[in-house]
């Protein structure tokens, strides 16, 4: 497959996860009222989505290494489609929780297959460029999704959001059937638990993987954790309507989109690795800005300004760090992508759960997100020390 086709298919497969998260967030306060339940119960639907998304990645990668990328994509997208239909007709919050868990499991296959396909076909700076293109296309989905969710909620009610998700699932299945080619070479063999466990142990013993993945976990995990806080801060404390909330989230996604556009020509001039440092500084600065919420009453600018700065930094961090994390594993790209996804989503799950335990979303936003920025900085310092000791992974490739 050509780089252009891989970029387009990879972006679609990757986008289904964050789109399914962000299109749903404007409806969370409305679902509290519709089911006459608590905010904690509805937040749990998002937490379970994160949990399913994180844990299923550990299965999706090895399955795709053993059985092929296409069959596993069909399997996980079928789970996603069926779960969307269950959520559409959910009679209560308990069924909705189960459906969101299954949706997370299904969506996990998309992001893993996308990264594994890139690793199958490309390496080094070429891989970083493909991942950057995926990021540019990907950012359009989460940018539009909250706005679309708010409009669907206002015009047709919250169940229309899940009908839209079901349609997205069918579209991904169709694109996979028509345009995606198998990229795993060699004979197929069933997955073996012992071999999978040994592969994961090998991955976790690789320092280059650990440092690069922890940088991603601190940066992207903060973004995922924010999704559990922002609807209640911006709609309950700041007073935005669901449609205004959706439009306001364009500051986050638009900032990431702008960073991806800026990063592309810079990677050609200075290399992807050199963009990570400025990106980490942006993540740290955004987190530091959110600490002001502990002292000032939240407003749209005080919340979304730092969020936009962090999102810009993530656009610089992701291409090089994903390439660096997966570079040592040419024969286990699916497993490496799985473990990387599990760690980054798991960090968002843990951070979001800690924030939920605090009760006050403003307090959580002002403490948990800055802590994630600190983790990102410390991991990057460890990554730089590793590079000085061994040489850049891209140069080794």
TrEMBL record:
Q: Is the keyword Cell inner membrane assigned to this protein? A: yes
Q: Which GO terms describe its biological process?
A: xenobiotic detoxification by transmembrane export across the plasma membrane
User: What Pfam families does this protein map onto?
Assistant: MFS_1
Annotated membrane-spanning segments are: 44-60, 72-91, 97-118, 130-154, 160-180, 209-233, 245-263, 275-296, 308-329, 336-356, 362-382
In Swiss-Prot or TrEMBL terms, this protein is called Bcr/CflA family efflux transporter
Q: Which UniProt keywords apply?
A: Cell inner membrane, Cell membrane, Membrane, Transmembrane, Transmembrane helix, Transport
Protein origin, superkingdom = Bacteria
Family, according to the entry, reads as follows: Belongs to the major facilitator superfamily. Bcr/CmlA family.
The answer to keyword Transmembrane helix applying to this record is: yes
What's the source species' lineage? Bacteria, Pseudomonadati, Pseudomonadota, Alphaproteobacteria, Rhodobacterales
Compartments annotated for it: namely: Cell inner membrane; Cell membrane
Membrane topology (UniProt):
Multi-pass membrane protein
Name a single GO cellular component.
plasma membrane
Question: Known PANTHER family for this protein?
Answer: MAJOR FACILITATOR SUPERFAMILY MULTIDRUG TRANSPORTER MFSC
Native species? Amaricoccus solimangrovi
- From the UniProt record, which GO molecular function terms apply? xenobiotic transmembrane transporter activity
The residues covered by the Major facilitator superfamily (MFS) profile domain are: 3-385
């Amino acid at each position: 497959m050509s780089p252009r086709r891989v970029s387009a298919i990879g972006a679609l497969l990757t986008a289904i996860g964050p789109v399914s998260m962000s299109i749903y967030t404007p409806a969370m306060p409305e679902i509290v009222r519709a089911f006459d339940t608590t905010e904690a119960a509805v937040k749990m639907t998002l937490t379970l989505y994160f949990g399913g998304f994180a844990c299923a990645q550990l299965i999706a990668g090895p399955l795709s290494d053993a059985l092929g990328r296409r069959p596993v994509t069909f399997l996980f997208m079928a789970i996603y489609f069926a779960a969307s239909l269950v959520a559409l007709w959910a009679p209560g919050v308990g069924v909705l929780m189960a459906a969101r868990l299954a949706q997370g499991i299904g969506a996990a296959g998309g992001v893993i297959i996308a990264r594994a396909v890139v690793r199958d076909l490309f390496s080094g700076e070429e891989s970083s460029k493909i991942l950057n293109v995926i990021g540019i296309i990907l950012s359009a989905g989460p940018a539009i999704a909250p706005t679309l969710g708010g409009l669907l909620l206002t015009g047709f009610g919250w169940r229309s959001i899940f009908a839209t998700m079901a349609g997205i699932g069918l579209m991904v299945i169709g694109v996979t059937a028509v345009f995606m080619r198998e990229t795993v070479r060699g004979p197929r063999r069933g997955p073996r638990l012992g071999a999978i466990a040994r592969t994961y142990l090998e991955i976790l013993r690789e320092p280059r993987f650990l440092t690069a993945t922890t940088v991603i976990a601190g940066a992207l995990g903060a973004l995922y954790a924010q999704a559990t806080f922002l609807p209640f801060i911006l709609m309950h404390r700041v007073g935005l309507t669901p449609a205004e909330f959706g439009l306001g989230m364009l500051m986050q996604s638009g900032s990431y989109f702008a960073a991806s556009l800026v990063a592309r020509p810079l990677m050609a001039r200075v290399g992807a690795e050199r963009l990570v440092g400025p990106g980490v500084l942006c993540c740290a600065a955004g987190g530091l800005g959110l600490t002001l919420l502990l002292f000032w009453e939240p407003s749209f600018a005080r919340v979304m300004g730092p969020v936009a700065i962090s999102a810009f930094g993530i656009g610089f961090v992701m291409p090089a760090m994903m390439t660096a994390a997966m570079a040592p594993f040419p024969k286990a790209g699916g497993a490496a992508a799985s473990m990387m996804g599990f760690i980054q989503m798991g960090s968002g799950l843990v951070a979001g759960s800690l924030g939920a335990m605090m009760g006050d979303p403003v307090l959580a936003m002002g403490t948990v997100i800055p802590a994630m920025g600190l983790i990102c900085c410390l991991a990057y310092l460890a990554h730089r020390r590793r590079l000085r000791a061994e040489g850049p992974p891209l140069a080794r490739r």
